[in-house]
Amino acid sequence: MKRKKYIGVFLAAVLILCSCTGCWGSKELTDMVQVIGTGLDNAENGQTKLTVQAGSASTSKSDNKKKSAESQIILYQKTGNGIFDMVRDITHESNRRLFIGHNQCIVFGKEDAQKGVKNQLDFFLRDSEARMDVNILVSDSTAEEILSTQTEDYDMPAVGIKQLLEMQQANAESVSTDLMDFSLALASETTCPVASMIHLSKSNGKPRFVVSGTAVFKKDKLVGTLDEEKTRGYLWAMNKMKNGVVNIQSHSQPVCLEILGSRAAIKPVLQANHHLTVHFPISVKLGIREIKNQDGISYDELSKQLEQDVSHLIQKKISDCFHETQLYGTDIYGVGKLVEEKYPQDWDNIKDKWDTLYRNSIPEVSVEVKVKDSGEISKTYG
Amino acid sequence: MIQAILKKIRYWQLIKNSNNTDEKPVKKEKKKLSLSLSTNIKWFKELLGKSDDIKVREFTFGNKRVVNAALIFIDGLVSNEIITESIMKPLLLYDESLQETPTNNAHDLMNQIQRRVLCSGDVTANSYVEDLVTSCLRGDTVLLLDGTCQGLVVSSKGWDKRSVTEPQTESVARGPREGFTENFRTNTSLLRRKIRSPALRMDSFTIGEKTHTMVCVAYLKGVADEKLIEEIKRRLNTLKVDAILESGYIEQYIEDAPFSLFPTIGKSEKPDVIAGKILEGRAAIIVDGTPFVLTAPMLFTESFQTAEDYYSRTLYASAIRLMRFLSFLIAVFAPAFYVAATIFHQEMIPTKLLFTIAAAREGTPFPAVVESLILLLAFEVLREAGLRLPRPVGQAVSIVGALVMGDAAISAGLVGAPVVVTVAISAMAEFVTPENQDSITLLRLIFLLLSAALGGYGIMLGTLGMLIDLASLESFGVPYFAGIAPAHSHDMEDLFVRAPLWSMTERPPEFARKDRTRQKGSKPPFFHHKS
Amino acid sequence: MKKTKISSSQLFYTIICYIQSFSIVMNFSFGISGRDTWFALLLGSGIAFLSLRINIAIMQHFPGKTLVEINSILYGRKVGKILSLFYLLYFLFLSSVNLHDIGDFVGLSILPETPTVVILVSFMIVCGWAVMKGLRVIVRYSAAFSWITFIAFIVTTILVSSKVNWHNLLPVLTTAPKSILQSAWITSFIPLSSAVLQMVAPNVCKPNEISKILTKGLWTGSLFMIAVIIRDTAVWGNMAKSFVVPAYETLRLSGFSEVFQGMDVVYAVILITLEFFKIALLESVLLSGFSQLTNQKSHPKIMAVIVSVLMALIASQIFPSIPRHIVFAQKTEPFILSIFEFFLPCISLLRIKWTCRSRS
């Protein structure tokens, strides 16, 4: 009988344990705030200002469509030294915990990025809730401005930013970096990370996000930006131009071509005198999508001319971008890693002088262009 | 769980002890009939009592030598036609002078009546009072003659029985719509009509001290494993119970693991299903008084098989089979996954869906676990009510259930819509495999509690526990989870998919030890055309 | 001696499951050899293969006998029993360390706030129950578990393929040879324990196939682990050194379309299931060894409970923190393992040869 009593007590304890809803790791949805955007800005005394945009649960009900005029963003802001500290500090204001598992983007203010981001990213790498596919952006002004703006297209602006970044593939003029790429670049000795730039613009008096341009970091400090043309050059070299449009003047006519596919590689060659030549062999396939006036020019002639013109254009863009990065001294292409792979014995001698080596290296771009088709028609009829 | 284990251990100890001290069957002294008719009738009346339906028809017959006789039968159990035409008529018209061999005493007369006079199909002689009383209670008529201590049992069963209709628990879109009935003989005849082989054996038992229920074990001799049949018979013989009212009684007495969540003895109401299982080498146990016939041994995968699988074509049958497994998983895990995802692992939910669920959770007072438990309970109540209520009230209950419990509860803010959807999906998935109903209901609850305590980890531990339990379960010596663990290639043909009939050439070796070949070389026509 | 019969394919898959569960603790070797861990694992498999051959040779001398029995025969009853006792303590140590790994991993990945004791105790309840049901039951699932892991690996590799950068593996073999050797030594005995196999193998139905199955199992499992390591290195490059569980981080990356982004719990569950298998195997080996030591037919059920509780207690207290555990695994553990896996079998084999020679 005694044994039965013990077993009964044990079972009761187990049952109570199982059914108690305050178990250690359980977080009710109503007890948490879903963070969808994080922003980090510079504050006085070397501190950081954290801006957190939270998603509101009531935004997804259908009867809230009429509320579009009002702002539905919920922001939390704190100034402090460590991000983890600040996140917990927010509980002074909010009755719920912050949950960053659904964080869509991390925005750095320009000043903050110039001071260095490595320490701040450390939190996002260690935390178990944070994910590696968060997008990293640099704001033209401050992160707070970006995150506190309610745009008309999206209910939850941070989610909108993420979708906007996914669309950038179509115009092929901006990069989209996530935490994983950024950290991999930071962890490497020579490669420098890049991030997209975002700013606000007004259209019809209403604000909109615009993603354009690339922020270039040296180690973890923002040192410069690349505009859209130069970003194109970067993307060409990095084999990331899979879709996109090439606008060109040929025979004094504006021609619009679509990129059907491209392949690029980077091949560094170390000369005997420790000078570096970086070869960029590129091959592109294009299709004619719009010509203002094709009169009198045959398809063959047109395509030959176009191939030449596009080849020059791509060469110029890549060289321009490369020279700009040389000015900053930032190896965003990963050339250093390739040199290490190719010349492992010499690498130990070179790696201390990599900065000067990169600044003095010479790019050699060789582009092979093919115009594959001209759309549905081969000739415009006047 | 530990309690269950200890109970199981104690149960097995009981079994072992009872096996060791086998009671020697106490041979009761059986009372033999006396020579005097009136004494016999008196004894019968003592044993059977003064009920209105016990009829004793005394009569005399014979012209040369007048003999006193009595017919004892129970009104309602016998067919009056048989008594009139097959027993009374030939006896009353019996002319001794027309017989070739003269009879000297009542005993010879009895023999002659048995052999040459009675027109009924089944006439046996018996001298023991208890046996004669038992056969009376079965519906036979007992004929007693003055001067002999032997009685005749004439089969005259004729009572009201239900006609053979479509079984209510298993309906098919394609296939025979006959189902077993409560009548023992009808059931055996239905089985015989499916398997017309002389190898089909039906060994009968009478079980139940008060109910004397007829139970028979049907199997194919030469195909079914002899040890299996012996084991089944041994277990049936050890039953010393008061009553067997339904095959469920027998199932609970002879099953291997009474405390397991999964049944180890199958059941079915359809003769073609039972015939299929007998042909694979299993044994069927037919019990008088119930249309549910048991099959032993049973495998886990059987609860996912229906008769229609084998009448439909391969691809469709395989897709449906896979869908059934999926439904089982959904039915068991859906509420647990929902609770685990919304309480512990919010990263798993897509962002937009998360906000919808959060919005739904905002308005409700209960924690997610309690909500799910309430709804599960509500569903069980609805289901049980639907089973028990009288038919005219059915419509009202379903409307009340659907509208009130679903819609109104959500609008009132008692429960959230996602929880209702989850529980509804789980409930619907449960009915895809109705055989698993009891195990699904309990498993669902266990997993829900586990996931509330430890999230995905709890579900994982529960799954592992369930898998270990399944793998260690044995049904009459055959591993219960055969096909998945231990995995053999020959089991795969009928497990998750249903291989074409012409490719299943061998019987599963767990059952048919001797005769493995099901068919030899019958392939569909397209194999023959080589051109 | 009650022997549970397991089939050869079950033994094969058991070995593979055992090796696959190494994914959780890959940081031991990643932390040292970084990019060239795959080569270290290859070397380690070679060393493990060597020790396996030694054990197989011992087993072939005494067919159908487990480690404990062989020790008693080789070294006499008293010394043999003491040696077997040491082996049993070694199994206890192995299972406690693995249990500690699980506690860490679960606490890291899916249940951050639950106290480790709860995780371990609930794990041991299920594990102890499985062991009470018997080795036969556990081994039945080995095929299913290893196939699920294979499929998960293939699916996640496809999903992660956009992030794979083969340049992360280059330049090959530039890490210091000392690091590679140390890493190889670590990986040689942690994934595959020949001593455990020597306890399990005699239960197989067809004894003459044992050596073939063990070799096949070892190499298949090692090749799979090398593939996993290559994939992880290709995705993470040098960052793999800094992760606590690199394989899990790769799994967290694999997601497609917005709906399936957070499947890490599912993958964590698969990894934990493999570890469950390993610990159940270790515990049942421990218990069967104990029953053989005390000359009983099979262990009393209460022993399973006691051992489970003991293992949970040891595991929760054994290491104060994860970094200490990593340091221990990199510096001290290989010594302990190589004594039992390599040196003792060597001595046993030499003794066998010496006895044979002195007889003939």
Automatic annotation (TrEMBL), chain B:
Coiled coil location: none
Top-level lineage group: Bacteria
A single GO cellular-component term on record: membrane
Biased composition (Basic residues): 515-531
UniProt entry tagged with the keyword Signal: no
TM segment ranges: 322-344, 403-425, 445-468
GO annotation, biological process: spore germination
Keyword flag Transmembrane: yes
UniProt record similarity statement: Belongs to the GerABKA family.
Name of this chain's protein: Spore germination protein
Species this chain originates from: Caproicibacterium lactatifermentans
Lineage: Bacteria, Bacillati, Bacillota, Clostridia, Eubacteriales
TrEMBL record, chain C:
Protein name per UniProt: Endospore germination permease
Organism: Caproicibacterium lactatifermentans
Transmembrane helix in keyword set: yes
Membrane topology: Multi-pass membrane protein
InterPro entries cross-referenced by the UniProt entry: Spore_GerAB
Similarity remark: Belongs to the amino acid-polyamine-organocation (APC) superfamily. Spore germination protein (SGP) (TC 2.A.3.9) family.
Subcellular location, record wording: Membrane
GO biological process, one term: spore germination
Domain of life of the native organism: Bacteria
Pfam families in the cross-refs: Spore_permease
Alphabetical keyword list: Germination, Membrane, Transmembrane, Transmembrane helix, Transport
